[in-house]
Amino acid sequence: MPEKNDFFQPARPEGSFLEQADSRLKIVGILAWSFLLALTQQIEAALAGLAGSAVLIIISGLPPRLVIKRLSAVNFFILFLWLVLPFSFSYPGEVVARLGPLEVTRQGLDLAWLLTVKGNAVALGAVAFFGSSSVFELAAAARRLGAPEKMTVIFVLMFRYLQVIGQEYARLRLAMKARGFRPAMTMHCYRGYANLIGMLLVRSMDRAARIHAAMLCRGYNGRFWLSGGTCFKKTDWALSFLLLLLCGGVLAFSWR
User: How many CB atoms are closer than 10 A to CB 38?
Assistant: First the structure.
């Protein structure tokens, strides 16, 4: 049994509602949910989508600390929208405040607020769906949905060995510190970082060659076998109904 995806969810309660659902439904569901929210232009519909994503987070059983951490990364980029959009509709626009030569407009504030709600709604939905599946389950589901086999293989191997490369980088950095290396704006420091990157590339290529040889010894012939269920369960039908209900709610607020 493959290990759960600790990048998305390091400590997830086992047996949650979303965890039992088919990963194919999760991929299709988050794509439809994100597409619907991206097209929403009314703030009421966006708030309804945010509430729907909150429902998905609750039934996923994800710990609040993980959710807050993921949202913090998203809102860090949304912060830059608030630094630009309120000042971007000076003409035509209804000025509500002035900061020196800059004019804050109601249209800019409304757009920044709408994008903030939509961005958080999409992020919450993605965390709920992807955080309740391992990367191997998602790759297998994408393959069964028709994704190219080579892309799924690259996705799985990349995820698996990015952590290995990160550990190798940490060891090299520790070795540099043990030899008295200290970051500074000097040519010696630049050469040290260049050597670090070069050694990381060399060791990554060497490890990749050894892994490929090990895979060939175990009968690898270009196909990467991924297991997974093929039929819908009661949980999947219940999740499908919930998604239709949430999408219907967003559409209802949009049509109003």
Answer: 12
Is it true that the peptide bond before 92 is cis, omega within 30 degrees of 0? yes
Rounded to an integer, what distance in angstroms lies between the CA atom of residue 62 and that of residue 106?
A: 37
The amino acid that residue 20 corresponds to is: Q
* CA-to-CA separations, 119 to 17, 39, 75, 112, in angstroms, rounded: 24, 12, 8, 10
Find where tokens 């070795």 sit: 175
pLDDT tens figures, 95-119: 777 777 777 888 888 888 999 999 9
Task: Count Cα neighbours of 107 within 13 Å in the Cβ-side half-sphere.
Answer: 10
Q: Give yes or no for a contact between 108 and 86, defined as CB atoms under 8 angstroms apart.
A: yes
Give every CB contact of residue 225 below 8 A, 6+ residues apart in sequence: none
Amino acid occupying residue 62: L
**Within 10 A of 244 (CB to CB), how many other CB atoms are there?**
12
Residues 6 or more apart in contact with residue 97 via CB below 8 angstroms: 103, 104
Q: Are 134 and 4 a contacting pair, CB within 8 Å? A: yes
Q: Distance from CA of residue 224 to its chain's centroid?
A: 24
How many C-beta atoms lie closer than 10 Å to residue 85's C-beta? 21
Question: What one-character DSSP code corresponds to residue 10?
Answer: S
Q: Would you say 129 and 21 are in contact if contact means Cβ atoms under 8 Å apart?
A: no
User: Which parts of 40-147 fold into alpha helices (H)?
Assistant: 43-60, 64-82, 106-130, 135-144
Dist. CA 74–CA 81, nearest whole Å? 12
Residue 247 neighbours by CB distance under 10 Å: 18
* pLDDT, tens digit, 9 for 90 and up, residues 59-83: 888 888 888 888 898 899 999 988 8
